[in-house]
Structure formats: structure tokens, C-alpha cells
Amino acid sequence: MKKLLMLCLSLCLIGCSATQKPESSSSDAVTLHITVINEVEGETLFDDDLTIEKGVSTLSDFLEEADSLEVIMEEGEYGKTILSICGVATEDWNKGPWWLFESDTNQACVEAGMCPAASELTIEDGDSFTFTYTDTF
Question: Mind listing the UniProt keywords for this protein, alphabetically (predicted)?
Fold first, then answer.
């Protein structure tokens, strides 16, 4: 009986510790250099480093937390699609302009020659991304 009680307590402790999330620390912070260009109007809307203190792993996670960029996204067939940044929005998906992004520092983007969907793209501290509102691609 004593062994059974010890086994039950051990399983309970293992189960409880497996469901607890580790607490966030400052090492969870991710800093990206973000450049936002409205190519249609010929203006740079944002060009600076942004740091998100929460643990984020994908570009879409980062953008959702970056309040200063005012990013609006929607879930699409191939992942999250950027609809608007800094108040500049795609009005007609058939005609454009559209939001595109690229990186010359993110390993996945460099290896593929293009970036995958923001919700699929794993980011690393120090990556740099350029978002361009364009009617050509």
C-alpha cells in the first residue's frame, strides 16, 4: 500500500510539473530591425529596432505584439497574411497594392530565396525584415 501511495504521488508531481509553463525571463526578448516602406507613395513609414519582451517564435507572433506597427493580419490558406501596417492597408487583393516582406539575415528566408508565411517563419534575435507596400512583384 505504501508503494502504491508513493507511486501515485510521484505521478501526480510529474504531471503537475509537466503542465507548468516556465516563467518568462529577459532572455525571451527578441529584437528585430524592421523597415516599413510604402513604395506606392515613396515613403518610409518605419525604420528602427523593435524589441518584444514576451517569448515570441514566429514573425506573426512578433508582429501581433508590436503595437507601434499597427499590424492587421488574417489567417489564409497559406498562413497569416498581412493586411495592413502603420495604417496602410490592401484594399483589393485582385489589383493590389499588397504587403510583401523579405529578409537578408533570416536563415530560412536566405536559404529558400524568399520568406515563408509570417506564421511559419521562425525568427531569431537580431534578424532584419523589410516590409514593402507595392503594386509590383
Answer: Signal
Q: Which of 53, 35, 55, 54 is nearest to 45 (CA)?
A: 35
Q: Could you say which DSSP state residue 28 is in?
A: G
91-125: per-residue pLDDT in tens?
998 999 999 999 999 999 999 999 999 999 999 99
Rounded to whole angstroms, the Cα distance separating 58 from 127 reads: 12
Strand 43-52 relative to strand 30-38, pairing: antiparallel
End-to-end CA distance of the chain: 72
Task: Evaluate if pTM is beyond 0.85.
Answer: no
State the pairing for strand pair 88-89/98-102: unpaired
State in words which class domain 30-134 has: mainly beta
- Residues 79 and 116 sit within 8 Å (Cβ to Cβ): yes
18-60 pLDDT, tens digit each: 333 333 333 589 999 999 999 999 999 999 999 999 889 999 9
